[in-house]
Design a protein that fits this description.
Length: 82
Amino acid sequence: MIKVLFFGQLKDQLGVAGIEISIEHEVNVSQLVENIIQAHPQWASALHNETVLVAVDQVMAKADTLVSRAAEVAFFPPVTGG
């Protein structure tokens, strides 16, 4: 089971802090996003936003990063500081 977490403004947009996704085999981040959107089509615009950052097991990830069946994946908006 993949634990998917949403942070910041993205959490507010989606209305949830996280979900769990069951997959049969290892996928990459891009495929995981598509699986999430299949289950929650109303989230498509928020998750397809190019500025959304992704971490897999607390390491920054890209679209082709592999996600194991027991991973923790976090989605969050870009962080700005001052």
